[in-house]
Specification:
The complex is a heterodimer of chains A (about 110) and B (about 110). Chain A has about 110 residues and is mainly β. In chain A, about 0% of the residues lie in helices and about 55% in strands. By secondary structure, chain B is mostly beta strands. Helices cover about 0% and strands about 55% of the residues of chain B. In chain B, strands 2, 4, 5, 6, 9, 10 and 11 form a seven-stranded mixed sheet that branches. Chain B is globular. Classes of the chains: A mainly beta (about 110), B mainly beta (about 110). Chains A and B meet through strand 4, strand 5 and strand 10 of A and strand 5 and strand 10 of B.
């Protein structure tokens, strides 16, 4: 079956450093991917997305990289700030599934 | 306006009660979703509505009954729930299936 997973459940980084959060997916038919940030007690917040015909997309302080060969997705956060502390989920979408499947999540902690 | 509004924010109900969760969006999105999220877990899909029609039911027990009265509203009717149904219930919407999905803040449901 399709699944989206993460290599690390927790990640701690120093304030100001760059963060890299990884995600592995198994469904080669996945054609659209989203990264979400979820703070405690809140719903997931859209960060950035990427389609399968791209390998890189940049936003404000965030970059998503997609490697379809190894079915790997990553989220890079530049100059990590305390406000970036949250759980980050990747999610993938397939047209036949018609829904977003979430990975297990990575908790990012930013150390002062 | 990229807001998905869910009410109530918190709900405590007994196992014999009937209650409803409400979700509203005014972005003209035609796909709407209900997800269930347990603590420290990723959101899990329950239902998908596409153009106001139920397109996916992920084998959800019949004590959960979705309803889409119009293109802006999505309800989840609850009846005879069990304590294990306690969770954060999230609503999301997207313009079409494979486009960015925006989540509400969720309803924190406790079944006693």
């Amino acid at each position: 079956g399709e699944s989206v997973g993460l290599h690390l459940p927790t990640l701690s980084v120093q304030e100001g450093d760059n963060s890299i959060i990884n995600c592995a997916y198994s469904n080669s038919a996945s054609d659209y991917f989203i990264w979400y940030k979820q703070e405690s007690g809140k719903g997931p917040q859209f960060i950035i997305d990427i389609r399968s015909n791209m390998d890189k997309r940049q936003g404000q302080r965030v970059t998503v990289l997609l490697n379809k060969t190894v079915k790997h997705l990553s989220l890079q956060i530049a100059a990590t700030q305390p406000g970036d502390s949250a759980v980050y989920f990747c999610a993938d979408y397939t047209n036949y599934g018609q829904n977003f499947v979430f990975g297990p999540g990575t908790r990012l902690s930013v150390l002062p | 306006d990229t807001e998905v509004t869910q009410t109530p924010k918190h709900l405590v109900m007994g196992m014999t009660n009937k209650k409803s969760l409400k979700c509203e969006q005014h972005m003209g999105h035609r796909a709407m979703y209900w997800y269930k999220q347990k603590a420290k877990k990723p959101p899990e899909l329950m239902f998908v509505y596409s153009y106001e029609k139920l397109s996916i039911n992920e084998s959800v027990p019949s004590r959960f009954s979705p309803e889409c009265p119009n293109s802006s509203l999505l309800n989840l009717h609850l009846h005879a729930l069990q304590p294990e149904d306690s969770a954060l219930y999230l609503c999301a919407s997207s313009p079409m299936g494979n486009t960015e999905a925006f989540f509400g803040q969720g309803t924190r449901l406790t079944v006693v």
